[in-house]
Amino acid sequence: MNPHQQILEKSAEAYQLYLPHISIDTVIFGFSENELKVLAIKMKFNNQWFLPGGYLKKEEHIDDAAVRILSERAGVTDLFLEEFSVFGKNGRSEEVFSDYDDTLWHKQRFISIGYYALVNYHDVSPKADELSNEFEWLDVNNLDEYSITMDHKQIILKALLTLRERITYKPIGYNLLPEKFTMTELQRLYETILGRTLNRGNFYRKIKNLGILTKLDELRTGGAHKAQDLYSFNKENYEKALQNGVNSW
């Protein structure tokens, strides 16, 4: 079955399964090789990159729908997930489906609820479906290099701005870093998200004062630099810091 026929079939199914005019778009952030990345999908009917998204079932809670979509599209279940904005510009999706009849489900005007997710880059297993055939982690600092559909670039940038605001008063890293990491790796994560260099001494002091780390009896060896201490997150204290907040960086 060609992509055109598949879209028509999906349209007929959608009218039966989902609430009209409401969609969900997810910005999945991962951290790898000192770069903050976002997961994108390339659809068979369009040579552009889409955010993993979907629709709200008629009897479904919105947050549950976001969790379901992330599981179905990216194979992600253990994550940090947060709603961050709503997108409803007139004509935001119609142009992509301009070759189809106006009755097509996907061509209707949709108000999209944006969620961002923080995941371990290496734990994500994207799943292709009838309409998608390619996945890629896009570098958030070089989005202009990619052809991104509709307003999805603006959604990514809004999610990044939200993440930067959040990092000034809540800890970040539990879902983005591996189980064991060095303080240098944690600082690089913060600097990558914030887009600026942080003073090493001040960063180390603030992080340690939060009490969210456990120093391990292990060292990261290898490479040109001397061995560094390894840490893990203290989940209980991390959750407390999420509730109580932290001082600005």
Description of the structure:
- The strands form 2 sheets. Strands 1, 2, 3, 4, 5, 6 and 7 form a 7-stranded mixed beta sheet that branches.
- The longest helix has 16 residues, at 152-167.
- The chain has 249 residues and is an alpha+beta fold.
- It is 31% helix and 28% strand.
- Strand 2 (35-43) and strand 3 form a beta hairpin.
- It is built from 6 helices and 9 strands.
- The protein has 2 domains: 3-167, Nucleoside Triphosphate Pyrophosphohydrolase (Alpha-Beta Complex); 181-244, Arc Repressor Mutant, subunit A (Orthogonal Bundle), CATH 1.10.10.
β-strand percent reads 25-35%
Q: Radius of gyration over alpha carbons?
A: 20 Å
CATH class of the largest domain: Alpha Beta
Number of helices: 6
**Total number of domains:** 2
Low-confidence stretches: none
Characterize the main sheet: 7 strands, mixed
Q: Which H/E pattern describes the elements?
A: HEEEEHEEEHHHEEH
| Chain-averaged pLDDT | 90
Q: Ends: how far apart?
A: 53 Å
- Gross geometry: elongated
Question: Using DSSP, what is the number of strands?
Answer: 9
CATH level 4 superfamily of the largest domain: Nucleoside Triphosphate Pyrophosphohydrolase
Would you tell me the structural class of the helices and strands? alpha+beta
CATH topology of the largest domain: Nucleoside Triphosphate Pyrophosphohydrolase
Q: Based on the structure given, which CATH architecture of the largest domain is correct? A: Alpha-Beta Complex
